[in-house]
Amino acid sequence: MRLSTSWMYQQSANTMQSQQSALAAAQNQVSTGKRINLASDDPGGAGQVISLDHIMAANTQYSANMDSANTRLSTEQTTLASVSNLYDSVRSMAIQGINSTLSGSDRKDMATQLTQLRDQLVQLANTSDSNGSALFAGTSTTSLPFVAGAAGAVSYAGNDSTRMAAAGPGLQIATSDPGSGLFMAIPAGNGSFTASAGAANAGSLIVGANSVSDPVAWNGASAGSGGGYTITFGAGGSWTATNASGAAVTDSSGAAVGGTYQDGGSISFNGMTIAMSGTPSAGDTVNVKAGGTQDVFSTLNNMIGALQGNGNATQLANTLSRQIESLDQAAGVATSTQVAVGGRMNTISTQQSAYQSLGVTYQSALSSVQNVDVYTAISNLSSQSTSLQASQQIFAKISSMSLFNYIK
Question: Could you tell me the pTM of the whole model?
Answer without folding.
Answer: 0.77
